[in-house]
Amino acid sequence: MGVDKIECTCAVCGAKFKKWPSILKDGRGKYCSKDCYYKSLMTPAEDRFWQNVDKKGEDECWNWTGCFCTGNYGTLSVNKRQTRAHRYAWELHNGSIPEGLIVLHSCDNPACCNPNHLSVGTPKDNTQDMLCKNRRHDNKGTKNANAKLTENSVQAIRGLYKYSPRFTQAKLGELFGVALSVVNRVINYKIWKHVP
After folding, report:
1. Which has the closest alpha carbon to 43: 54, 56, 30, 55?
2. pLDDT tens, position by position, 119-140
3. 67 and 114 belong to one structural domain
4. What is the DSSP secondary structure assignment for residue 90, as one 8-state letter?
5. Are 97 and 90 in contact (CB under 8 A)?
6. 3 state DSSP class of 140
7. Using CA atoms, how far apart are residues 64 and 48, in angstroms rounded to an integer?
8. Could you give the angle at the alpha carbon of 25 between the alpha carbons of 82 and 180, nearest 5°?
9. pTM for the whole thing?
10. Rg of the Cα trace of the chain?
11. What's the number of CA atoms in the CB half-sphere (13 Å) around residue 79?
12. Do the domain assignments include residue 195?
């Protein structure tokens, strides 16, 4: 059964159009045409930034809806340089980030750009906050927002590979929608170690 296209609204002209979910997932495909995409590049960085933030109440998370990089952090181009969305949000409201400091989230939501949820601190402050909030092991298995597998699919991969020679690692990768390297790491208990 195939995946249906999703109806979208162009971020520049407001026209309705349809895109595949995989294209929308990482923030691509917000434009109905190349013309609208190029017009968006002419928009000042601050305006482009706020077009990609889902503003809500003052105390709620304002999630980034544009492109994402590693760790579910929003990313955008400012002056031909990639920057993380939450850092840009902090700079818009507070000025430059002092040297040696990083921008921290009080809400523990990497996609959040609400300036009320952001502060600066050292990497050590960030680590201490992580330990105090017991977030250190929160990214195991399906608790990891990027996880494509579940505990059941990990057990299935290991079982099929061990007991059925027709299931090669490449075949299992295709079957479960993950890269060959992921299958190899699952089989060799380099990842998903907590699953028997």
Report:
1. 30
2. 999 988 888 887 777 665 445 5
3. yes
4. H
5. yes
6. coil
7. 12
8. 95
9. 0.54
10. 20
11. 1
12. no
